[in-house]
Specification:
The chain is mainly α and 68 residues long. It has three helices and two strands. The longest helix has 13 residues, at 9-21.
Length: 68
């Protein structure tokens, strides 16, 4: 997977994180045929992406979305 562009610094960091860790909403969306979302990373009872979620929150993300 390659990032073709991002809207701001945080978006760039989140995309770089997905490329490095190979997990996150865009990775899941590319593997499937449906959009992927987590509308509350902070309050989620169980992190969908064990390695992606903590640094994504540290970057400032509270919700993430991926589209095929």
């Amino acid at each position: 997977m390659t990032s073709l562009g991002a809207s701001d610094k945080a978006s760039t960091q989140l995309m770089d994180l997905e490329i490095t860790l190979r997990e996150g909403p865009c990775n899941d969306a590319c593997r499937g045929e449906d959009a992927v979302e987590d509308i509350d990373l902070v309050k989620g009872e169980k992190a969908r992406w064990v390695f992606y979620t903590p640094p994504a929150i540290a970057i400032g993300a509270r919700a993430v979305f991926g589209f095929p």
